[in-house]
Amino acid sequence: MRAATFPRLWLAFLLAAGGAANGAAPTTRWAVHEITLTGDRDYANPPWDVSVTVEFTGPAGRKLAVEAFWDGGRTWRARFSPDEAGPWRWRTRCSDPADAGLHEKSGDFECAAYSGDNPLYLHGPVRLSEDRRRFVHADGTPFFWLADTAWNGALRSREEDWAKYLATRQRQRFTAVQFVCTQWRGGSKTLAEHAFSGAGPITLNPNFFQRLDARVAAVNAHGLLAAPVLLWALTEPDPGRALSEKDAVRLARYMTARWGAHQVVWFLGGDGHYTGQDAPRWRNLGRGVFGDRHDRLATLHPCGLSWVADDFAEEAWFDFIGYQSGHGDGAKHVGWLILGPPAQQWKKTPVRPIVNLEPNYEGHPAYQTARPHSPQHVRRAAYWSLLVAPPAGVTYGTNSIWNWSDKPGPAEGHERLGTIPPWPAGLETEGIASMTVLRAFFESGPWTALLPAPEVLAEQPGTAKNPERFIAAAATEDRSWAVVYLPEGGKIKLKGGVLKGPASARWFDPRTGQQREAGALADSGGVFTAPDSRDWVLDIRTDRPVR
Fold first, then answer.
1. pLDDT, tens digit (0-9, with 9 covering 90-100), for 296-326
2. Domains of the chain and any CATH numbers
């Protein structure tokens, strides 16, 4: 990294965080307050040899503790997100009481109410809704998960490029960014330095993480939720598979200590196999990382067509079900999403939000035919994902962004994908525009009350042999709104009693957001014909005049 870059990044981090070391700058509610400590002695391997905990006491006397992290030399830092306005006090405890620079240090700071328009600080951290099917902010405001997969973005981007990307996604109304934050299958050889080295025990590299500090803070500064993958786990060299449980927990806890005060959702593992004989390891890792600090949501990002909910149903740290419908276009792959676990298991308890964290990537060669996935494939996977299970949100992806290269070429570890365009090619696409339209459509109605309603269809043309024709339907619990997605146009026949009372239907164009009248829905049902053979949404509501 250029010598002049780091100070700018660090300044950007402090400004985005809303607080600086030892109370030197004001801190606002839900932002980051940082404390810097300087030890009195050197340690051979500080993250293993000594631990430092900082206990914060709020205005009402409530106590919260965070783990401090080593930041090179004798420097330690603790980052904390205050949830109450008013005076806060803090005190440190060190496992080495003889280190006077780390043990029994204390101080205070003032937390002010937030007055800006960043939704993460205005409404607070993202958590589960009361019914545990969706996400809300701390104040109860619904949170629609619309994420982008920038796997290599934080690792490879320049400061100004990362800011341009985030500003673009913010304008396009995305709400989260998924990224990797250590070496991994798709970003190891090209990194100037690695997050860690060795094993038994590993040696952490603070310089690597210092660069990422500003990247994580910038995500939040643009109003986007950060979703870092702590331990990528698909291939043998990936941290999630190569490291022992002890090393993996130490690495992951270092990152949660470093960024846990930010507005984040943790992906403990990325692209891994977590079921069957692998499940005990990942249950242990989750308990080791989140067992004593679980104030941010956590999940797993599995490999394609893998359903992990059953193996982690009783894990307290496993907050929502993430899955990957992946990049196949054969009947098995397409059918898994609409006929398999995502559509069949949402009623199982304990209830959790269900999110497709990696559907068809725009431009990604399909596994079976090698044809690039079209914007229609992107929309199809997104609407299916949101309608076959209670909608909590969905993730988008495109090759240019996840790979993040400045020039065309193959992707490291993914050479079979062929030549991938440079990252700017993934900023504005038809698929992305569809995602902006998608969010606006769902938020135009009581989307948090939608539940799958396949029973409203009198006929279902999509079968295991022809899954690409599957029509997905959902309706609100009070039957005032029904949403039906047709992937290939055509006719749709609805049963009677779909909604309670007179209802009107409109055809919604998922490409542009434009609408056209479709007619009234009779008590006995009705047949509607899409405007053309492309994909369409039939939007039926009781709160509109019937024509």
1. 999 999 999 999 999 999 999 999 999 999 9
2. 18-115 (2.60.40.10), 121-450 (3.20.20.80), 453-541 (2.60.40)
